[in-house]
Amino acid sequence: MAIHEQLKKIILDTLPGVECVIGWGPGQDALHGSPVFMRKPEDVDSFMDTPLGAFGAVNNLALFLPELSGKKVGVVVKGCDSRSIVQLVAEKLIKREEVVIIGFPCEGAADLTKIEKALPEGREAGEVTGAAIVGETLKLSLGSEEISLGLADIKADKCTRCKTPGAVISDAFAGIAGKAPEVRDEYADLAALEAMSLDERFKFWEREMSRCIRCYACRNACPLCVCRDHCVAGSRSPHWITQTDSTRDKLMFQIIHATHLAGRCTGCGECQRACPAGIPVLLLKRTFNRGVAEIFGYDAGMDTEATPPLLTFQVEEAHIKEREWQ
Amino acid sequence: MSNKFISHEKLRDWLEDLSARFEVWAPVNTGQDAKGVVVYRPFVRDGALEFARKPVESAKHTVFPRSETLVNFKTGAKDGKPALELHVPEDPPARAVFGLPSCDARGFQIFDPVYNGSGTQGLARDNYYLRRRNATVLIVKACSKVLNTCFCNWVGGGPACTEGADVLATELPDGFILAQVTARGEAALGSALLAPASDSQEKQARKLHEEAGAALCAPPDLSASVSALRGKFDDSAFWEAEASKCLSCGACTYLCPTCYCFNITDEARGVLGARIRSWDACMLPLFTMEASGHNPRTGKIQRLRNRIGHKFSYYPSLHNGRIACCGCGRCIKSCPSSVDIRRIVTDAIGITGTAGLKEQKNG
After folding, report:
1. Is residue B101 part of a domain?
2. Whole-angstrom Cα distance, residue B333 to residue B210?
């Protein structure tokens, strides 16, 4: 039985005991999927009923769990999404017993930006009228034109460095979890940025942030961003962030966001995917993630019993030799 | 006045010529490669103008800035009493926006009755809006293609609709044909660089308009949206299903050509300060937060209901039935959760099987 059929069966079995099961269903066109909240057995028909199937399961559905806390819900997860759940449980932001986690062996998810970039010059993703996955290729129709793209070329970057293609924790699993791949995150995406001088880097961020429209999709798409209606960006007393259209303050917000996520961010990349202006905000979070890994040896979202390093302190940190500082 | 023509080679010369009289804005690829993000920017001669892909943002901010200073102030004392000095910023420069799609220009027509007094029995005339609006020439570029998220024809528009446009530009293989629509448009077309358009160019333009119009799917009848959405107001199961996947961000509102809400904030540093007007969004929690701390719209369900209800029910019931949506589709295209406003409205009315709209289970 195909994975998505197995998942459907698990979802149907889960439904009677939960408020709903959150999964992926069709979006506005062949390329887009969309979160679907399955409440009745007939809702399950639309689960992964999309041309891209599991490859189009891009949304991190762990996002919706804190707002549903108090209710028992099921959620289908990719490996990366399951890490968000682990982190939410570790921080006691959701209760483990309130979530039924359904995993599957993820083979990677699409990056719509990469797909658009791979289309001929002047063409955009919204022109795609049909899509089908054939082997390791995504075949697209743009009206009468046919275009083939290799799946490896349009997979999200996070998938290429993924250590957890199966769920880190799950209550049910469709198929068999493969062996965890031996990959090491070299943070290659940060190298280009760090090769720039400080001045160049600042200009880079000013250019990128100049497109920011302050919609806060980055913040609201983040499963670990839990201040919700009480965000520093909305605070009027004290008034932390200006209402003028200031690029520096927009960057300031991103730095606050990244700092709040230090040692908590699992690198799911939803902030960057959600940005309508295509601002590479994940780079900021990954800079912190690398630092946290180096200093505290901590990787967020791997252990529900762990305490994130910045939510605690040690009198003597193993990798911070304060006494040796001059 | 007969139509004009400008070749692709001379386009930048003409826009430079226009720049002597207007602050010219145009869609620009701001990225590092051919597929960078397209947004509106002030025209510069060596800028990466792009007309092939639709700008991610609407042209709303060219007339209604994301943030503008209403008044600068200085606090102090005079003769032992508190004194306040006020300084209203100078009038903004006249602008010409070249290359915006028709939906973006039509968006301002939804702004107008709210801000020019006509829709409020003269109660509210927003001079900050009007001085920019009246000094802006909109040179619409007819759309040559239709995206999956485009639905301008559902709400009375079309790829070459001239409603809201001052000039209609149509891109031919060798340049743009320019048709004057309003008296304001004449000011932009008074340039020696423009040649008269030939009959065959006119014919080509008309053919392109027809082809683009034909590429849109047949629209459903939305005339029942006013009463249908009012009827659904208290149907919490309906709104919960529609709003479940919403992440409650402001992408839809801030990309929207017709969302006109704003907030006013005083920001001061010492004795100097400014009263600032900045965009606000009904999808964000602070929008309805009251001074007491009470928030009548407690969550995303009430907020999304307001956004849809306002556009397809409350606004039309106040403004002669006009729907406050221009069908640009940006709220769908850029929604991180693929919330589809078309589907919510057709669900509310009870229309099924709409062409071009994928049938889905309720969220």
Report:
1. yes
2. 25
